[in-house]
Design goal:
Shape: globular
CATH architecture of the largest domain: Alpha-Beta Complex
Distance between the termini: 29 Å
Structural class: alpha/beta
Strand order of the largest sheet: 1-19-22-21-20-10
CATH topology of the largest domain: Polyamine Oxidase, Chain A, domain 2
Number of domains: 2
Largest sheet: 6 strands, mixed
Bound molecules: flavin-adenine dinucleotide
């Protein structure tokens, strides 16, 4: 059942050899063919409804959020935010130096670009903002309030970008296919703004319940987090950046015991658990792509300032966009700029010229070169676009007729079976009293599933839920 995904997918050939040296010898094949076992029927019922995301496959996102790839630096986020000829300005979550990969980071970046623009522009100038996500709408709001003539140009037929709230009659609450959480709510005003907009949100304690494949609830061992912490400490001492995967190998992760301990979970399983349920989930990237210098460190204290948005994250953008001039379903294909103006070409062939522009398309779109910049972006901008990484996180929302599970925990995780794709679940039952589960898949597993059809995607999710359809056999230590 275990495929040691993190090792196979993330470590060098050398470490794989080391790993195979630790693996127990495989039994020799016998001459008698083994009869194929009939799989046990699943205890997880079919859901009544399903909604999913596929962000890496989305042409206007090309990934979920930016991450610190090996050899990238935080300075490169700053480099991207550097105004170009005082005419062209970039913004978006990837440019946030304080909160990349978040809604508040995106908004802050949009506001910063708008302030940079106002500091050099004349009153009344015509400004185009490309992209109607959190960054673009925040920039446009500020510029419009400052008296500029603003046109927002958006490829999709809706506002919000990666904030994607689906309001549907078949769901008892708004479904979030992008962000659901306000992270570091003590350090930003999103919760107050949402309250002002009458959008409900609630405190969210991310303490996970961990289960083994047979449904045993098991206390989370510190081995995984300690191993990653030691690897990051080793990486920090190196003269050159190295991947988290290599740092793990250098600090002995391949010699972690693979012998099942209590509840059938080995130390190596706990490392896989830490990577799958935390490190890769946070960055959307596998350990072999993540910077050893800048990868997220395991949390040392419980996070007490996370809130879950229940009443529709999209309202935030809709409200900011009220009375703005937005051109939907309009893909920008070319951005030409001089020191006097910016000209934009749309997919329809139409063109327009403005005094200045703010480009807020995601890093994944900038990496793909689908927008032609003429002249090409400056060297430092291109270097930053190439160096920073775009990670993947996808979600599945499943609505059941009634709960089939026996736990009130809000966060579910699994350990000891790395063939399961969805390793983290949010149980909406204790929060909303609705039998809704939200599954998360990240990194290479997410990329692997992105192009699968809904049936295959749902099957992978339902299989990942099996440990929760089995009556728990132990309770975690207090
Ligand atoms: C699954 C998932 C879960 C997340 N969870 C959280 C969370 O819980 N909390 C949190 O704070 N953050 C979370 N995030 C991150 C957060 O959603 C983003 O950081 C933020 O929304 C990015 O905003 P943005 O304006 O930078 O980019 P976007 O929202 O992507 O906006 C860019 C816009 O540009 C448009 N565009 C692209 N190409 C073109 C083109 N050629 N022409 C015109 N328009 C174009 C796009 O359609 C899009 O509307 C999550 C993201 C994902 C994907």
């Amino acid at each position: 059942m275990k495929r040691r995904t993190f090792l196979i997918s993330s470590l060098s050939g050398l470490s794989l050899l080391a790993l195979s040296g630790c693996a127990p010898p495989k039994p020799a094949p016998t001459g008698t063919p083994t009869p194929t076992a009939t799989p046990a029927p699943s205890l997880v019922p079919q859901p009544q409804d399903m909604l999913r995301s596929s962000w890496s496959d989305d042409p206007f996102a090309r990934g979920s959020y930016s991450f610190a790839a090996v050899s990238s630096t935080p300075q490169q986020r700053e480099d991207l935010a550097e105004p170009i000829l005082d005419r062209l300005f970039l913004a978006g979550e990837a440019l946030s130096d304080t909160a990349p990969g978040t809604v508040q980071g995106a908004r802050g970046s949009g506001q910063r670009a708008a302030r940079d623009l106002t500091s050099v522009a004349e009153p009344g100038e015509r400004v185009a903002v490309i992209g109607a996500g959190a960054a673009g709408i925040a920039a446009a709001r500020l510029l419009s309030d400052a008296g500029f003539t603003v046109l927002v140009i958006e490829a999709r037929d809706r506002l919000g970008g990666r904030i994607h709230t689906v309001n549907s009659d078949s769901w008892p609450m708004p479904v979030e296919l992008g962000p659901s959480f306000i992270v570091a709510s003590n350090a930003n005003s999103l919760d107050e703004e949402l309250t002002g907009l009458e959008v409900s949100h609630a405190p969210f304690a991310p303490t996970p319940e961990a289960r083994t494949p047979d449904g045993t609830v098991t206390p989370v061992s510190p081995v995984g987090a300690d191993t990653v912490t030691a690897a990051l400490a080793w990486a920090a001492e190196q003269a050159q950046d190295t991947s988290l995967a290599k740092a793990l190998v250098a600090t002995g992760s391949t010699t972690l015991s693979m012998t099942d301990g209590e509840a059938g979970v080995s130390d190596a399983d706990w490392l896989d658990y830490q990577l799958a349920t935390s490190t890769t989930l946070e960055s959307g990237a596998p350990a072999d792509e993540m910077s050893g210098w800048y990868a997220p460190a395991p949390a040392t204290t419980a996070m007490d300032d996370i809130r879950i948005v229940l009443g529709g994250y999209g309202t935030l953008v809709d409200d900011d966009a009220a009375d703005l001039d937005v051109l939907l379903s309009s893909v920008v294909t070319r951005v030409g700029y001089t020191d006097t103006s910016v000209s934009l070409r749309l997919g329809t062939g139409e063109s327009l010229t403005v005094d200045r522009a703010i480009v807020t398309v995601p890093l994944g779109v900038l990496k793909s070169d689908v927008i032609e910049f003429n002249p090409p972006l400056p060297f430092a901008h291109r270097g930053a676009i190439a160096a920073l990484g775009m990670g993947t996180l996808d979600k599945i929302w499943l609505r059941f007729e009634e709960p089939f599970w026996d736990t009130d925990a809000a966060v579910w995780t699994t350990v000891g079976d790395d063939t399961l794709d969805f390793r983290v679940w949010v149980n909406m039952m204790p929060i909303t009293n609705e039998p809704i589960l939200v599954g998360f898949v990240s990194g290479k597993q997410a990329l692997g599933l992105a192009k699968s059809d809904d049936t295959e995607f749902t099957d992978a999710a339902l299989r990942s839920l099996e440990p929760f359809a089995i009556v728990a056999t132990a309770t975690p230590a207090p």
